[in-house]
TrEMBL record:
Keywords assigned: Cell membrane, Membrane, Transmembrane, Transmembrane helix
Signal peptide: none
Domain MacB-like periplasmic core intervals: 20-247
Coiled-coil portions: none
Topology term for the membrane: Multi-pass membrane protein
Primary site of residence: membrane
Localization per Swiss-Prot or TrEMBL: Cell membrane
InterPro entries, A to Z: ABC3_permease_C, MacB_PCD, Macrolide_Exporter_MacB
Protein name according to UniProt: ABC transporter permease
Domain of life: Bacteria
Species, as recorded: Parabacteroides hominis
Amino acid sequence: MLKIYLKQAWNLIRQERLFSLIYVVGTGLSVSMVMVLSIVFYMKIANIYPETNRDRMLVAKSGMIKHKNGSQSSSSLSESMINTCFGSLKGVEAVALISRHDGECMVQPDGDPVQLPVTVKYVNTVFWKVFEFRFLNGKPFTDADQQSAIRTAVIAESLARRLFGTTDAAGKFISVDFRQYRVCGVVKDASLVTEKTYALVWFPYTVADGYKPNGSWYDTQALGDYHAYILASKGTDLKALKKEAEEKAERYGKMLGEETFTALGQPDYYWQSCFRYWSNERPDYVLLSLQYGLIILIFLLVPSVSLSGMTDSRMERRLSEMGVRRAFGAPVGTLMTQIISENFLFTALGGVFGLIFSYLLIYLTRDWILQIGASFVNALPEGADVVFSPGMLMNYQVFGIALLVCFVLNLLSALVPAWRASHRQIIDSLNAK
């Protein structure tokens, strides 16, 4: 029966081409707007290279101190605080440290007077376990390198090819800000989409200027220069681990004497950390969910009203058909099913158009599209390009979202017209012109 409905819907498309074109394009534009938001947020929270463990990760980025004189300070966390509160948790596989003092440095290629701007990050050795970079040559710097502050570096594939013409760069030296570093490994490039891990050069955090072992900020034990990425072991209850980590951070805050420390509800689930912009304020996740839900609802409702009017107009022209079928005993439910099935073909075609258009829109506006909803990055580093891998865009989650949007849009635009058409008095339907 469904096959017959779809065949009839296809014939209607061929007979009413202008109506069909407007309907499909209108549906597609609505779907594309929702899909752009969905794809952007999918890339923020899904497991994508090299952040393939986001689903079992907790993040602590900042804290706040209330001093005995009544003043407040907020910043990133100290190495000591992170190790004390999170390093000994049961069910934790590793804790990566990333310095907030990342930025841009200049590389001096041999025999080339033009210096190259590169994005650098200062990390610990466990960083390479938490974030699963694929090493093309060499290996990560070692604990001995980190503890001794030996100038070693892991570089990205693109930089290795630019400097040496090959990825076989382990053991060679590069000059960064006129300091020599030995390359210990080369990794496949990360996309700027994964802003937490993106760089072209990664150094041990101990080689950073001004580094002090367990150094803290503002003469406190809790604030410092680091963000912590806590990787839970497989099978660990992440909710229970988060609660335990919060309790340890709270107890740590009470050990500081006259000062009071709070981690403001951290560590966060990975998706929550994407919305934590300020070091002295806890986001209202309920409000954020409502805001983005309202945006998506508006994207769906506005075209649905227009499409519903078009569907209702088309139903008016088919009232005679509905009247004849009801006169011969067709149930109301059968008529509604047919109308919604026919309409679903229209929305499905619009969904395919919208999905393709959303990919095109993301590609053409990739330099700034990541600022939709919540910023991925503050600014695009010089020489960097936003790269979307096929796995980021073409996957069952994204297609599932597109199908769901089409289904919801179909119901919103077709349900009322279908109900009105199928519940008309038979005599009125037969006499309709």
